[in-house]
Amino acid sequence: MASHNLLLLPGDGIGPEIMEEVKKVISWFNANGGTDFTTEEGLVGGSAYDAHGQSISEEDMAKAMSADAVIFGAVGGPKWDDVPYDVRPEAGLLRLRKDMELFANLRPAICYPALADASSLKKDVIEGLDILIVRELTGGVYFGEPKEITDLGNGQKRGVDTQVYDTYEIERISKVAFELARTRNNKVCSMEKRNVMKSGVLWNEVVTQTHKNGFEDVTLEHMLADAGGMQLVRWPKQFDVIVTDNLFGDMLSDVAAMLTGSLGMLPSASLGAPDAKTGKRKALYEPVHGSAPDIAGTGAANPIAMIASFGMALRYSFEMVEAADLLDKAIANTLDKGLRTKDIAAGGETTVNTTEMGEAIIAELD
Ligand code: NAI
Ligand code: MG
């Protein structure tokens, strides 16, 4: 079995607490799952700032660039409110995303049977839900120029953001979506607003063309993004993979994520382009939630989003589908047994702390 190098960046707040549980999972797979992961650890965010005044050091950046995958905890918090903007904790994560060119953000929305009652939607709408949002992460209106507020001189100001997409950006994100769909239910829905946006017209055109160039075995449909938002809430199970731009993806992935429950449950992956020689993608895996400073140090953090993010690494960076399925099953079984961290407890179940939840998942793996 080939050896894979993981860079662990716990960060600050609850980041280090939930990373401890992932380390146990990694050790479990090395001991019992036939994997050979080597790990290195680095500092990012507040922990890096406290140690050396930067949100991530050049040395750790270099490690991230050469790692087979980065496993990232969380960063940020009021403790660093007054540090300069470019070295604030969140800057470390943005630097990683930018330098590693992580253009494809994957956010699954999976309904664990035991939590089907926890959604704000009716049980039959979300029971068995398993969809994947693929959001373009490095282009679009968050980055396009001009981006400014100008003074019009008549007591008025003008705020401008610009949505820009080039062919190659749309092509590479749609390829990721088609390739992932092939590992799932073979269906992609592309969302834009071609009815009112030129970038939407191009988006639609390029996705359609990419589909023709080698992905015709995958079913492709198109939906206007606002209608897509409505359909996500009405009947989310109609979707398999959704591919969309940075702005719509930001909103739609939050909607999709919340169909199924708590922030403490939601993993994510961010992928770069395949290396020209090896074909391997740079990748960073992190929970969707932040550093939860309000509960840091209390043992209340739910480690599932973090552990499931490692599960996504198994699936998407290392093609260890069986191992990933096993880990997902261990999480589902743990929940089936009624174990809950506080954030997902509805009353009547056994409330456990971070370590106990991690160990229960290990026991299920056993
Ligand atoms: P947050 O996600 O840290 O917390 C929101 C709420 O959810 C809090 O009440 C928290 O206790 C709870 N929560 C979050 N994760 C949980 C878990 N695993 N288990 C149990 N409860 C959990 O978002 P918030 O409070 O808006 O931001 C806190 C800090 O985190 C800020 O500095 C923010 O910038 C940063 N942040 C960092 C992110 C990252 O590292 N990728 C993402 C989002 C926010
Ligand atoms: Mg967002």
Automatic annotation (TrEMBL):
<dbReference type="InterPro" id="IPR024084">
    <property type="entry name" value="IsoPropMal-DH-like_dom"/>
</dbReference>
<feature type="site" description="Important for catalysis">
    <location>
        <position position="193"/>
    </location>
</feature>
<dbReference type="Pfam" id="PF00180">
    <property type="entry name" value="Iso_dh"/>
</dbReference>
<comment type="function">
    <text>Catalyzes the oxidation of 3-carboxy-2-hydroxy-4-methylpentanoate (3-isopropylmalate) to 3-carboxy-4-methyl-2-oxopentanoate. The product decarboxylates to 4-methyl-2 oxopentanoate.</text>
</comment>
<dbReference type="GO" id="GO:0000287">
    <property type="term" value="F:magnesium ion binding"/>
</dbReference>
<dbReference type="InterPro" id="IPR019818">
    <property type="entry name" value="IsoCit/isopropylmalate_DH_CS"/>
</dbReference>
<keyword id="KW-0464">Manganese</keyword>
<feature type="binding site">
    <location>
        <position position="135"/>
    </location>
    <ligand>
        <name>substrate</name>
    </ligand>
</feature>
<feature type="binding site">
    <location>
        <position position="254"/>
    </location>
    <ligand>
        <name>Mg(2+)</name>
    </ligand>
</feature>
<comment type="pathway">
    <text>Amino-acid biosynthesis; L-leucine biosynthesis; L-leucine from 3-methyl-2-oxobutanoate: step 3/4.</text>
</comment>
<dbReference type="GO" id="GO:0051287">
    <property type="term" value="F:NAD binding"/>
</dbReference>
<feature type="domain" description="Isopropylmalate dehydrogenase-like">
    <location>
        <begin position="5"/>
        <end position="361"/>
    </location>
</feature>
<keyword id="KW-0100">Branched-chain amino acid biosynthesis</keyword>
<dbReference type="InterPro" id="IPR004429">
    <property type="entry name" value="Isopropylmalate_DH"/>
</dbReference>
<feature type="binding site">
    <location>
        <position position="226"/>
    </location>
    <ligand>
        <name>substrate</name>
    </ligand>
</feature>
<dbReference type="GO" id="GO:0003862">
    <property type="term" value="F:3-isopropylmalate dehydrogenase activity"/>
</dbReference>
<feature type="binding site">
    <location>
        <position position="107"/>
    </location>
    <ligand>
        <name>substrate</name>
    </ligand>
</feature>
<keyword id="KW-0520">NAD</keyword>
<feature type="binding site">
    <location>
        <begin position="290"/>
        <end position="302"/>
    </location>
    <ligand>
        <name>NAD(+)</name>
    </ligand>
</feature>
<feature type="binding site">
    <location>
        <position position="226"/>
    </location>
    <ligand>
        <name>Mg(2+)</name>
    </ligand>
</feature>
<feature type="binding site">
    <location>
        <position position="97"/>
    </location>
    <ligand>
        <name>substrate</name>
    </ligand>
</feature>
<feature type="binding site">
    <location>
        <begin position="77"/>
        <end position="90"/>
    </location>
    <ligand>
        <name>NAD(+)</name>
    </ligand>
</feature>
<keyword id="KW-0460">Magnesium</keyword>
<dbReference type="GO" id="GO:0009098">
    <property type="term" value="P:L-leucine biosynthetic process"/>
</dbReference>
<keyword id="KW-0028">Amino-acid biosynthesis</keyword>
<keyword id="KW-0560">Oxidoreductase</keyword>
<comment type="similarity">
    <text>Belongs to the isocitrate and isopropylmalate dehydrogenases family. LeuB type 1 subfamily.</text>
</comment>
<keyword id="KW-0479">Metal-binding</keyword>
<comment type="subunit">
    <text>Homodimer.</text>
</comment>
<protein>
    <recommendedName>
        <fullName>3-isopropylmalate dehydrogenase</fullName>
        <ecNumber>1.1.1.85</ecNumber>
    </recommendedName>
</protein>
<keyword id="KW-0432">Leucine biosynthesis</keyword>
<keyword id="KW-0963">Cytoplasm</keyword>
<dbReference type="GO" id="GO:0005829">
    <property type="term" value="C:cytosol"/>
</dbReference>
<feature type="site" description="Important for catalysis">
    <location>
        <position position="142"/>
    </location>
</feature>
<feature type="binding site">
    <location>
        <position position="250"/>
    </location>
    <ligand>
        <name>Mg(2+)</name>
    </ligand>
</feature>
